[in-house]
Amino acid sequence: MEILMNLLLMLGGVAVFMFGMKQMSSGLEQSAGPGIRNLFKKINKNRTFNYGIGIGATALVQSSSATSIMTVGLAHANIVTVKQGAGFILGSKVGTTLTAFIFALSGIGKGGFSISSVFAALAFVGVMIVFSTENETLNKIAPFLIGFGMLFIGMEVMEMAIGGADSTLSMELSKVFKYEIMQNPILLVILGIFFTAIIQSSTAATGVFIAFLATGVIKNIDQSFFLIMGANIGTCSDGIMASLTTNAKGKRIALFHLLTSIIGSVAFTIILILFRTPVVNIFESLFPGKPQFSLATFNLVYNTLYTLVLLFFLDPLVNLVERLIQEKQQKQEELTYIDERFLKTPAIAVEQVLKELYDMATLAKENLNRSFASLVNEDMSESKKIAEVEERINFLTNELTSYYIKISSVTKSAEDEKLIGGLHHVTNDIERLGDYAVLLFNGASDMKKSDVQFLDQTKEELSQIYEHITEMFDLGFDAFTTRKTENFRKIAKLHKEIKKLISSTRNEHVVHLSSGMYPVEVSKTIYSVLFFLQRISDHIVNVAFSIRSTTGSETEALQAVEREKKEVENTGRKFSSDSNGEK
């Protein structure tokens, strides 16, 4: 009965440990969201650079599974090439090894002092922050502290349940690893694969193996080495599952992850079998009596060496996975950038939304150009294309709106929440731009059916208005994309100029109509077109100013810019005053 109770307590410790791991990873992602977003933006063609980014991003979230799933999604969305993602994947294998050293600290103490207990108390600090303050910065740090503390609570519970090397449960569990069959390297690697695939985390598996070493359940350190190499393959299961619904690029990344993990494990298993005694002696001599640190060091050395070697052979490996998985023709109606997988990292999900939204805006602009050209050139040949693009814009509107709700349900960042609120309005504005493109084309179509035309003077006046709209569109979406306000004054000036030109054209039309230069049938179309152009310019302004006003208010946005300018000036004056005072 005692063994059963201790075994149940050990499983409870594993549960607390795994939940702490998830909480810590979530807390790191929340507090380091902008940093992760910036790292992903820097992925380029340099394999070594991407390798470094993979190390950095994984060190931030402490989950190679999360970064591998993210890379699968990025490749699926055509944000990164397979070669770029491959370099990133190799780096992620090294980035996750840091956690093993943190786990190895469990149980390290001197006299009555236990560093594990100190770390465990951080969970209490995190809880107190949650219940006692509204400070946004502290509340971003709190989930990490709670998760980090729970890791050590879980480790302590596991070690307490197992007991010392001479405890009943420890001796019973250690018997399993004493069987002759458990000395078989291949079997140990397979056990590591299955154990990690079941618990869905190589980091958590490493923590369990370290606990077994610290309590004497595993006495031969080389057994843990083989288990770790198996765990390195088992962690690929997340990426494989994530890739099942992706295109060929996403599947290639998952296959590359699996293939390189197998190559690394096979190579080091052979090396360890051939040089078992000297390798074990080296790592044991590094940390006498501290086998958990020996395992953490082996994990780092093993992942670093084989990934650096494979980085050198990146091109042939990428070519291999590309040959094994062929491209298939994509469906016409699918999302380019956003994906459910990105919701695990809201900071990246927001970044992908901005890209999808910019593409949607580009489609709206292209349709406006087609419609306006049809209006002034009396050419109806683009009707099918305009209808197809409008259908695409409506599809994106629905998908983006749904995705915003999903991001809001998972993000804990006040900044992202505010941005998402503004993006709801921007999406609606872009969707209306698409609608006005269709309305402009319908006006052109009605004139064609009625066999009436604009005067050349009217065409020139409308073209002048549309040139201003095109310029404002470029300035407005540059402001939206870069999140910068330098173009605000010029956009506001163009907006006023467009209003004046529309008013002038409307007055000219009244003169033309009264003098009999226009048939009555054209009157309705001209008024409608001028109204459409006015509303198009209004929606572009809303999009541009949305970066400083959730609703896109021109007045509110300009006032916000003025406040920011004054704050910068006041800070500069204060700094100058302080500097003079020091002198």
TrEMBL record:
Q: Where is the composition biased (Basic and acidic residues)?
A: 561-583
Keywords, A to Z, come to: Cell membrane, Membrane, Transmembrane, Transmembrane helix
A Pfam family reported for this protein in Swiss-Prot or TrEMBL: PhoU
Q: Which residues form the PhoU domain?
A: 358-438, 463-544
What coarse category fits the chief subcellular location reported for this protein? membrane
**InterPro entries hit by this protein:** Na/Pi_transpt (IPR003841), PhoU-like_sf (IPR038078), PhoU_dom (IPR026022)
Q: Does the keyword Hydrolase apply?
A: no
Concerning NCBIfam families, the annotation shows:
Na_Pi_symport
Q: Where is this region: Disordered?
A: 556-583
* Keyword Transmembrane attached: yes
Bilayer-spanning residue ranges: 51-74, 86-105, 111-132, 144-165, 185-218, 253-275, 295-314
Q: What is the lineage of its organism?
A: Bacteria, Bacillati, Bacillota, Bacilli, Lactobacillales
Q: Can you name the source organism? A: Jeotgalibaca ciconiae
Tell me how this protein sits in the membrane. Answer: Multi-pass membrane protein
Q: Where in the cell is it found?
A: Cell membrane
Q: Which Gene3D superfamilies match?
A: Phosphate transport system protein phou homolog 2, domain 2 (1.20.58.220)
Endpoints of the signal sequence: none
Q: What is this protein called?
A: Na/Pi cotransporter family protein
UniProt record, GO biological process = sodium-dependent phosphate transport
Q: Which domain of life is it from?
A: Bacteria
One annotated GO molecular function: sodium:phosphate symporter activity
GO CC terms, sorted: plasma membrane
